[in-house]
Structure formats: C-alpha cells, structure tokens
Amino acid sequence: MDLQKLTIGQMAELNHVSQQTLRLYDREGLLKPQFTDENTGYRYYHIIQSARLDFIQNMKLYGMTLREIRTLLENSDSQSIKITLQSQVEKLNDKISQLQRSKTAIVRTLENYKKYEATPKNGEIFMEFMPQRKIFRYSCDVNYFDQNEGGYEYMMRQLKKQMTVKNIPFSYFTNTGTIIRKKDLLSRNMYSNEVFLFLDDWEDDEGLEILPAATYACLCSGDFSEEEENVHRLMDYIDDHGYRVAGDYLCEVMVDFPILDSSTRNIYYKTQIPIEFFGKNI
Asked: What CA dihedral angle connects 192, 105, 207 and 212, to 10 degrees?
C-alpha cells in the first residue's frame, strides 16, 4: 500500500468510514483527493489527509452541519474555532433543554395513562389528594359551556397562540384543561372561559397560577357532553357529604387518544373540585 497514493477504498478502510462518506466530503468541498494521475485520471488521497478527516468527523460528533464545518475549515484560525465551538455548546444546551422538556412531557403522559387505567370507569365519584401544581392559564373570548366540541378546539387554538407569544415550548401541550372559578361554581353558573396547561419549571410569572395541595372530589368521563352533568353531580356529592368547595373547578384532559375513524378529539378527562370539611382541608 502506497501511503502517499491511497485509493478511495484504501482511505476509507484506514479511517473506518465508507467510500460514500468520502465522496460526499469531496462533493461538499471538505476533503478532496490530493493527487490526480494525468494518464488515468484516477484520484488518490495522501495518508496525511487523515488529520483533516479526523477534524471533520470530530466536528460532526459535536453536532455541526457539513456547511458549518466547511466554513470553519475555510477560516481555520484558533479564534474562529473557539467562537464556533462556543456557539455549538450553546446550541447543544438548547437542544438538551428541549429534549428534557420532551422527556418530561412523555413521562407525564405515561403517568396519565397509568392513572387512566386505575380510575373508575363507571361514573363513580372518588377522592384524590393532589400535591401543589403549577399551571399557565389563558382567558379566551368564549364560554366553553356555550360551545360544542368545536368551541373547545377553538379555545385550545387560542391557548396555543398564547404559548407562541410567551415562547412556551409546545412539549407542554400534552396535559390541558378548563377552569370554572369558585364564585361561578358555588352559584352553579356554568361559565368557563379559561384554559390551562401544567408547567413544571417555567420562570415567567405572567399567566402562572399555583394550585395549592388539596384533596379533590373527582369524576372521570370520556364524553364531552357529560361534563355539565358531572359538575352538578360533584357539587351534589359535596353538599350531601357535608364538604365545602375549597377552590376552583378543573377539567383536566388526562389522555388524548389517537384519532382513528373520525376527526373528533377522543379524550378521557377528569373533573375535579378541591374540598374542605368544617373549614379544614381534608
């Protein structure tokens, strides 16, 4: 083997890359064969070009595109490399944060599926203690109970738009719901113009609300049309058992099933009202 005159196959084998990869780097202007035989037209690599190939492979491992690597090679002074690598660190940190939020959303969804499997499916009212939770809420221009399912979708679009305005990642758009404020709930006024989503680590206080730890009277359903009836059932249950309403009503979408045979959202939701007994949280 002539180390000063390596075929593309030899260069690929020595560097543990494919010939296709070397051809790509050639086309992109990153690594061209050093020598061309005038008689045959064959092109050959020199073994010392392996150093440049190592650099390209390292930059790829750092997450850089071929275009970014080519720019770096064309301006290959130490300061340019330092600036480029620092920028790449920042990009990777952003990507890690995005992946962490996606992981959190997946874990929350999995937990909700487990809760779905464990909750009563026969319209039974049950008690559940819930720790402090943080939500981002948004007031819409419609009352959910004056709408059909299309109205709910419209409210969700408004929430999504506000997420864009607030730069809230869409990975949080996995566990949403609606609110009836306590004053309307006590008078059984079916008014809900606020939508929310759960947040875990968001810093901006505008639009955020803390739900204190409490015991909730809950009822689950998979039918949009049953929610108003479920609210009244929960309120009757609270009155009949001597409890008191301790806060706002939430309708939390626990599971959003895949849409298979229709365009209608297929969800399973949990209606929940915080309660207290003789003025003390249960």
From this structure: 80
Q: H or E segment at 255? A: strand 249-257
**268, 233 contact by CB (below 8 A):** no
Angle between the N-to-C axes of helices 50-61 and 66-74, in degrees from 0 to 180, rounded to the nearest 10: 130
Looking at residue 79, its amino acid is Q
Residue among 63, 58, 47, 62 nearest 15 (CA): 47
Is residue 143 within 8 Å of residue 162, measured between CB atoms? no
CA distance 112 to 126: 16
Q: How far apart are CA 247 and CA 186, in angstroms?
A: 10
pTM, entire model:
0.69
pLDDT in tens, 20-65: 999 999 999 999 999 998 888 899 999 999 999 999 999 999 889 9
The CA distance from 7 to 64, in Å, is 27
CB 134: neighbour CB atoms within 10 A? 13
How far is 209 from 158, CA to CA, in rounded Å? 18
- Over residues 84-97, the pLDDT tens digits come to 889 889 989 998 98
Taking a C-beta distance cutoff of 8 angstroms, is the pair 168, 202 a contact? Answer: yes
